[in-house]
Design brief:
Low-confidence stretches: 1-39, 390-399
Distance between the termini: 27 Å
Strand content: over 45%
Strand order of the largest sheet: 1-28-27-26
Number of helices: 1
Oligomer: single chain
Mean pLDDT: 82
Number of strands: 35
Number of domains: 2
Structural class: mainly beta
Largest sheet: 4 strands, antiparallel
Length: 485
């Protein structure tokens, strides 16, 4: 009877293990089949606007649900004046205004009264080497312009509106090798509240408001000689630097061009890597670099725009970029769990440099470019509208072949050391199951901060065969472990 029972138990155990192994193989196949894009990003239209001179679009903002406004500089419609242009959701030009007092405008935001404020340089003789702002109504009609004299030659590069309608603006100042970043807080009418100099970097590209009321700055920091490296900066609400993080690549030049807050956990900075590839990185609230991802096949490229939008209760990070290889190429991509994925590439066969992008709540995206249409040899304003696929379910997250777990010792008596080959700072669940597939213990659940976990088996857990299962939002893997007491 005992032999028969043992034979049956061994047979049952063999069949159970067979089923688990089959499930593992089937699950693996399902994950492999899931590596596809369920619906492509589509370009609804792409337009060029301009004349016989060079025209540059540098920043884009949603004015309302059906109108976008971009800011830049025009040599076709004025003599290098700063300008703004409104375009409808159908790609039709609505208005274009130039502003003689200011030169190239680098950034534009919509403010609480429905109007617009754009930041750039001052160009008339009343203030040589000054930075400038222009405020308009919703139709681009000038309300006021202001000049700002800062030590050395200065230009405002980016701005954001605060909750009380004040304005934070960032730019550069100084001369030659003595350049630095300037950060100003202004009233809604442009009066200066305070000014700060930030010497951790010398060229700022973007400023956004952080969740704690401070500021995030995407910038470049100088290296020995005349080179530069990407620099991420976080300040408090008074403009004092909380932390800064400089790219540590051993060679080449890199830059951050844009930044976005992701929930309460950290920030995504985007730009161009030291080997001139589009890249994105995740930096936590304390200024620690947690993940990097680059598009290695895209030569001479950069991600210059990043937006965070709500989609089905989840935050989606949408990136816009371009690269120069066999003509002009634009792309969109999603960023999640430290990876760029769902990359959609659009080749234009002519020069095209994407410089900014934004996303509306309905997953409609817009980008502005410096473009040279066929049969022309001058830069024009380029505008593109996208219907975005912003889903991030399992079918759209790339399979990671290195996703695995290991553990020691096995069999174990009470304490088990578990190693996870899983990227840090993504949501992970690590559980223990019995032979009947019942979850008997949750070892870890949350955002992974370490790839090594020490597990102590509960005193009431019986000796036997168990299965460890580690899972993320896109993959899972099993491992068999034996507990001997």
């Amino acid at each position: 009877m005992g032999v028969d029972c043992n034979m049956k138990c061994n047979f049952l155990l063999t069949r159970i293990l067979f089923v688990f192994n089959l499930l593992k193989r089937v699950g693996f196949a399902v994950l492999l089949l899931g590596i596809h894009q369920t619906s492509a990003v589509e370009i609804e239209w792409s337009r060029s606007f301009g004349g016989n001179g060079n025209d540059y679009a540098n920043s884009v903002v949603m004015s309302n649900d059906s109108i976008i406004v971009f800011a830049g500089q025009t040599y076709s419609f004025a003599d290098g004046d700063g300008c703004m242009m409104a375009v409808s959701s159908n790609g039709d030009s609505i208005w274009l205004h130039s502003y003689p007092s200011v030169g190239r405008l680098f950034d534009v935001v919509k403010v609480a009264d429905g109007g617009l404020i754009a930041a750039g340089s001052w160009q008339d003789d009343s203030c040589i080497g000054c930075a400038g702002l222009v405020k308009t109504d919703s139709a681009g009609n000038e309300t006021w312009t202001r000049q700002y004299s800062i030590h050395g030659s200065s230009t405002f590069r980016s701005l954001c509106e605060l909750s009380n309608s004040d304005i934070a603006v960032v730019g550069d100042g100084g001369f030659g090798q003595q350049m630095f970043i300037v950060l100003l807080k202004l009233t809604s009418s442009g009066d200066t509240i305070w000014t700060r100099q930030i010497h951790e970097a010398w060229l700022a590209h973007k400023i956004v408001l952080s969740a704690d009321g401070g500021y995030l700055i995407a910038a470049q920091s100088p290296t020995e000689g005349s080179g530069f490296r990407a620099c991420a900066i976080k300040t408090d609400s008074m403009g004092s630097v909380t932390w800064s993080l400089v790219d540590t690549a051993s060679a080449g030049e890199s830059s951050y061009y844009d930044v976005a807050s992701v929930g309460d956990s950290g920030y995504v900075f985007v730009g161009s890597s030291a080997d001139s590839k589009p890249f994105a990185c995740y930096i936590d609230n304390s200024g620690n670099l947690r993940a990097e991802s680059s598009l290695e096949e895209y030569e001479r490229g950069a991600i210059r725009g990043v937006s965070v939008v709500e989609s089905e209760g989840d935050e989606q990070v949408v990136c816009f970029g371009s690269y120069s290889m066999n003509g002009g190429n634009k792309f969109t991509a999603l960023y999640r769990d430290g990876q760029l994925f769902n990359v959609y590439n659009f080749s234009f066969g002519s020069d095209c440099i994407l410089v900014s992008g934004c996303v509306a709540p309905n997953s409609i995206g817009y980008s502005v470019e410096w473009s040279v249409p066929e049969n022309l040899d001058n830069w024009q304003f380029g505008v593109t509208k996208y219907a975005l696929d912003s889903t991030t379910d399992v079918d759209n997250v790339p399979y990671n072949p290195d996703f695995s777990l290991s553990f020691y010792p096995n069999p174990f008596n009470s304490t088990l050391s578990i190693s996870l080959d899983v990227p840090l700072y993504q949501d992970v669940t690590l559980s223990l199951y019995d032979l009947l597939g019942r979850e008997v213990d949750v070892i870890y659940r949350g955002r992974l901060s370490s790839q090594t976990i020490s597990y102590v088996a509960p005193a009431g857990l019986a000796s036997g065969v168990y299965f460890l299962r580690v899972s993320t939002n896109s993959q899972s893997v099993l491992g068999k472990v034996v507990l001997l007491k």
